[in-house]
Design goal:
The chain is mainly alpha-helical. The two termini are 38 Å apart.
Length: 261
């Protein structure tokens, strides 16, 4: 099942960009009008190609532009975003790293850096950088927040931090409208499976699906239905580790203490 993806180019917006561009242009003017003219021409070509959906051309032009002006943060933003959206994650990483060097408080840059590292299986750095993006804020971009929280939860599951993973997922998504991928992550946390979804043995799919539905009911605080769901899973998969413990916890939460013992 494909992971939730953040596939868009948010406009590069924060106040200091205009000051940075102003000083950058002045610096180019001092170094020679030809350099400034070359940069402006290539930057316009990059924007035109990007807006026209010509990603390969846009990447080529943005690369040339940031070679001329390495402090052009907008160029690094679009270069990294274009690499990310065309699945060139390894190339996106240094672009976002350079952008963060220039603007270390840009949460979206940390976010996309972490997502790119996730795709290259650098899970340790991915988790650190995704969390940093959350701390800094993602410019009120709800899509980015959800995708980041989903991947953070997957990595917490991978690290065996199942309770934290569940908390992250519950904080990021409406319990009444959980996508299947979120249910699966919740189900894997419920079953205490320290793997990513694509690492699970396909023979476990039916169990995980059942646990996912149960976990979704728990997230919705629908304890009575969750208890019924637990009873069915325990009937179908009686030897599954941790299920009896989670079932007892659900019973206790429903104040059915005698049954929980």
């Amino acid at each position: 099942m494909p992971a939730l993806r953040f596939r868009r180019h948010p406009r590069f917006q924060f106040g200091v960009i205009f000051v940075a561009l102003m000083f950058g242009s002045a610096a180019l003017a001092q170094s020679g009008s030809s350099s400034a003219d070359d940069f402006q021409r290539i930057a316009q070509q990059a924007a035109t190609a990007r807006e026209g959906g010509m990603s390969e051309d846009a990447i080529r032009f943005y690369r040339r532009a940031v070679e001329i002006r390495p402090d052009w943060d907008e160029g690094w933003w679009y270069l990294g975003s274009l690499y990310y959206d065309t699945d060139h994650y390894a190339q996106a990483i240094p672009a976002f790293q350079k952008l963060i060097e220039l603007n270390p408080k840009l949460g979206l840059a940390w976010d996309l850096l972490g997502l790119s590292e996730y795709e290259t299986k650098d899970y340790t750095n991915s988790l650190v950088h995704l969390k940093r993006g959350q701390e800094l804020g993602l410019e009120d971009n709800l899509e980015a927040v959800k995708v980041a929280k989903y991947h953070i939860a997957l990595l917490l599951n991978l690290n065996g931090q199942f309770v934290k993973a569940t908390e992250v997922l519950k904080s990021g998504f409406e319990p009444e409208h959980l996508p299947d991928q979120i249910k699966i992550a919740l189900g894997m946390a419920l079953l205490r499976i320290p793997l990513l979804p694509n690492q699970v043995d396909p023979s476990k799919d039916a169990l995980i699906h059942a646990a996912s539905e149960t976990a979704a009911l728990l997230a919705q605080d629908n304890l009575e239905q969750a208890i019924l769901s637990f009873q069915q899973i325990l009937k179908d998969y009686p030897d599954t580790p941790y299920l009896h413990y989670e079932y007892a916890s659900a019973l206790a939460s429903a104040s059915r203490y005698d049954e929980a013992e």
